[in-house]
Amino acid sequence: MMAFLEAIRMALGSLRDHKLRSSLTLLGMVIGVFAIIVAVTAVEVIDVYFKDRLQFLGASTFTVSRTPSIQTGSLDASVRNRPNITWEQVERLQEAMQIPVSLSPLEDFDIGKASYADRETEPNTFVMGTNEHMLDNFSYELEQGRFFTDEDVLYARPLCVVGSDIAKVLFPNESPLGKEIRIPGMRCQVVGVLKEKGSFLGFAQDNRVFIPITRGFSAFGQPQRNIASVSMRVHDPIMINAAKEEATGRLRVIRKVSPGEPNNFEISTNDSMQAVFEAFTGTLTMGGAGIGLVSLLAAGIGIMNIMLVSVTERTREIGIRKSIGARRRDILRQFLIEAFFLCQIGGLIGILLGALAGNGVALYFDISAAFPVGWAVGAVVMVTVIALVFGGYPAFKAARLNPIESLRYE
Description:
Elements: H1 2-17, H2 19-53, E1 61-65, H3 77-80, H4 87-96, E2 101-112, E3 115-116, E4 119-120, E5 125-130, H5 134-137, E6 142-145, H6 150-154, E7 159-162, H7 164-170, E8 180-183, E9 186-194, E10 199-200, E11 203-204, E12 208-212, H8 213-220, E13 229-234, H9 240-254, E14 266-268, H10 270-313, H11 315-323, H12 328-358, H13 360-365, H14 373-399, H15 403-408
Parallel strand pairs: 5-12, 7-9
Antiparallel strand pairs: 1-13, 1-14, 2-5, 2-13, 3-4, 6-9, 7-12, 8-9, 10-11
């Protein structure tokens, strides 16, 4: 035990005596570990955030859309050219479903300013059409007032429910309920205010004005336009798979898809969207880790080079130690400990800096931080292996030096 502690003391002393050499060796190790940790941390932050945000679908909800809800590359022409999912088709689907479901469309109609009296918002207010089931299907909550009724949608009434940001700007000191506001394309009476929902990857979700979708068609036209998203919530969660199968069959008939041809629409669940995103983030993680591993390999070669130079510089010292009784394993242990400390210190600094930089994504988008514990442990193991592999040969060479020849070395 005393011999081991003495070896540690001598190794640390040698690193202190050669600060520049040690610092340059540390830098290579820090860069390698930093490259791995910053990549996987940033991806994990985004991954955790998306998983949390995608929970709005819930276990009893699925979404119908013309193209995939999450797209990770350019779409094939056959997907881009799919026919629109129209409001007529949505109504026919609702009527045809035998399994009880609540169906809610969501369509962007316009974007611009919302105004009341002498106050107006920035020109980034989204006018979106939906129906009476939107709150439950898309995980929104009311702060004040009410939401639309089926009669509001049926008669295309000029009503609206506004996001919290809209209410704060237009009605800072009064209730918005019952007031008439101007939005792009129309005027509408405010009947409700939504609770604050926050931003999603930097995009605000509280600057939206919801109107009955039928009123949107009346004000903006294009009744055959594509409905961006149709959420279907099953009343009994156990029936979700059966409901998906029925919806698929009904839509194939409604959209005139011939037997044997692929669907010309997408049905997505929370799990299916997460699977697509996880495949994408997994690729990003492995790419970043691969770059970091190459950097670590280069750092390992640098450590071997520095250690070989150190063996040459300290040949006489090794000869003196051997002449007074140091054994091969003592010399081997000292040089291995030096390599080990260089790698571990560099690795820990790289992990710390990588985690801080990676969580810069969380800070930028104002989302929860994350720390890749598994990758951090893996990085510690990797740098330990590098210390043994790339520090092993110089240590072995130092241990085999002939003490007589070493004492003569100048």
